[in-house]
Amino acid sequence: MSSPSKPPMRDALVEAAFRLFLERGYEQTTVEDIVTLAGVGRRSFFRYFPSKEGVVFPDHERRLAEVTGFLAAGGEGEDPVARVCEAVRLVLRLYTDNPVFSVQRYRLTKEVPGLRAYELSVVWRYERTFAGHLRERLADRPDGALRADVIAAAVVAAHNNVLRSWLRSGGEGDAGAAADRALAYVREAFGDGADRGDERDEDVVVVVSRRGAPMWRVVREIESALGPGERLPDRP
Amino acid sequence: MSSPSKPPMRDALVEAAFRLFLERGYEQTTVEDIVTLAGVGRRSFFRYFPSKEGVVFPDHERRLAEVTGFLAAGGEGEDPVARVCEAVRLVLRLYTDNPVFSVQRYRLTKEVPGLRAYELSVVWRYERTFAGHLRERLADRPDGALRADVIAAAVVAAHNNVLRSWLRSGGEGDAGAAADRALAYVREAFGDGADRGDERDEDVVVVVSRRGAPMWRVVREIESALGPGERLPDRP
């Protein structure tokens, strides 16, 4: 019979851990200290967290599962790069939904090399999840796996750039809007992951010309891009 | 007085370490075991390597310093993305110059989570070195830091994609040629890191048109892209 105001045991452990990390430092805090302050047994800790590092990033396992589910639920016709960009916004929200906690953890992570390494491995797992989705969806493209890996890394880097700025600022400003802009840059670079050069032939004509080029050359290039037999009409 | 054929102490330590890792497993081997087999004192080990993980990646510290120097030596007028692509080829060479060792280490790293984490932190340091160079060179671009981070991540991902394929194949094939191709994909996506959209205004006209568009619309778009007063010439 727990009262409604009492946080669940998992939250109590996270709260106790962070209170101790901030007071004594991360290295000086043991799992024993955490369970004592939270008033639970040692086994309870390991039911929720695989290690002391785990309590620092308590929600990533669940979010990783959600992200995997979100990606799998995407329709076949959907732009896979857009889907991955939406998925990374879910990861960002894990931070922005709780600015105070996120900024505390950021400061802790900067000071403790072991936590930095742990965080890199978390980021790596998101990146591989995104890459896995893209590899599947780009499987029939030339160099599909390469494209998938590169795009996944670019998406994660854009996310991290925005996240770090937001954390450094102490959690101020609209990280979501910044992320949309950063991800637009990535999408502009890669499109939907297809080689746009390949698709161009099907329905779009692109002509690039230096401003200084003589007009007859512009016309000739447009006609040659349009294909055999096509000519620009004479001025009516 | 060491004979010319006797490897230096550092190499002897790496050799002893790998012999033991392969025979007994990584976790079952202690630094004590390594120095005993190599016939040197414990202090010699720590003169060369910060930790047991360190002996698994013995050349990255030096290569990281070389990469940093190589980037700094680049001329001001040089394409910074091309420079970073050349730098990552130096990292690849660290693996391809010694296929047997690289493939052994790859198999070890796959089996030991701690080594995987260590490797991620090595990769991270290369990525931050590349990003630092690009941030400097793109500082006057809009969103220069974002571009730098995203391009650095894309370059590293292209490198890793090629490296992993090569390692999985047991060190067969021309990884250098594969890397050139993978990096060409990244450079195609990002150019020299500048927003090509910004530059376009200065000297190039781009017209994109659906193939189905009526010809008069194509003409009108070209004229409006060329700017006020410019008209396509009548057919001569």
From TrEMBL, chains A, B:
It comes from Streptomyces chilikensis. SUPFAM superfamilies: Homeodomain-like. PANTHER family: HTH-TYPE TRANSCRIPTIONAL REGULATOR PKSA, HTH-TYPE TRANSCRIPTIONAL REGULATOR RUTR. The keyword RNA-binding does not apply. The keyword DNA-binding applies. Keywords: DNA-binding. Residues 30-49 bind DNA. It comes from the Bacteria. It holds the Pfam family TetR_C_14. This is TetR family transcriptional regulator. InterPro entries: DNA-bd_HTH_TetR-type_CS (IPR023772), Homeodomain-like_sf (IPR009057), HTH-type_TetR-like_transc_reg (IPR050109), HTH_TetR (IPR001647), MftR_C (IPR041347). Residues 7-67 form the HTH tetR-type domain.
